[in-house]
Amino acid sequence: MPEPAIARLHSGGLVVNYVCSSACAHCSYRSSPRRDHAYISEAAAAANCRVCRSLGCRSMHIGGGEPFLRPEGLKGALRAARREGVAIEYVETNSSWFKDEDSAVVLLGELQALGCDTLLVSIDPFHNEFIPFHKVKGVLRACRRAGMGIFPWVMDFYEEIDRLDDRVPHALAEYEAAYGPGYLEDVLARYRITLCGRAVDTFGPLLPRQTAPAVLAAAPRSCPRLLGTGHFHLDLYGLYVPPGCVGLAVRREHLGQPLDRATYPLFRTLLERGVNGLHELAAGLGYRPGREYAGECDLCADLRAFLAASHPDRFPELAPREFYTADRRET
Ligand code: SF4
Known about the structure:
Distance between the termini: 49 Å
CATH topology of the domain at 12-199 and 229-258: TIM Barrel
Bound molecules: iron/sulfur cluster
Strand content: 5-15%
Helix content: 25-40%
CATH class of the domain at 12-199 and 229-258: Alpha Beta
Order of helices and strands: EHEHEHEHHEHHHHHEEEHHH
Number of helices: 13
Number of strands: 8
Mean pLDDT: 95
Largest sheet: 8 strands, mixed
Structural class: alpha/beta
């Protein structure tokens, strides 16, 4: 059997920061205003792009955190991508930076000149808990004026957000009040949500739950998603985040090489034995399940949180550390 490796990269994104002006209930990265305020340097963005390109990925998106919190840093990341021959598919934004249409059009023009021709604009009730909708509408208008492409994520929510007062943010409870009980469960079905990070806290309780032994009995014997390269991310620290498994990281310099068992014991365990293997390892270190779980990813998150808290220096692959120490839900 060849040693497992992340040998090719298909499509992914640059995480330029983890700090965010929002703290969305569905955020798989647990971003918030309280996260580390660091922003990717031009050199780190270039190094990430170089590795991606060498492993077959020629275009990426830019996400965060909120990439627009430091426009100069964002421009640096765009310059780096262009220099390294990596096309930027889109830059994600929550629109919190919007002040007025004229200044937004100027900034968008500067980004276009550096190779960004589309913004993914977040349109959903989670962001609307923190960002008044008039800002989102302002960014959409500015994009149209500047000729910037718009990737609305998700347009399906536009009208129900717009029916509420767009001058102020609205709590999810207001959506439940306006559109009926069960609204949140309904959103779960309409929005492609990865059960990871803060989304586990928000949506886990809404899903059917089972005891840990029942989850383990039904869990697959391997987690091949860890080697999936369809929606990966590379962050400002040079950490590779597998698609949908935030909190497990491979160092940039180890991409394309076999994942060494001594350096990546948790990756190897999950690849070879799935969450059952991780449970066995954690149980040997004192883990005891404390509740019921909405499937193997919920249990996996609990096991990793236990390992990160109880053995902080033993598993460097549990990264970035702030993912495990960040508040579960900002208020
Ligand atoms: S069980 Fe863990 S490693 Fe496997 S897919 Fe779920 S979160 Fe990722």
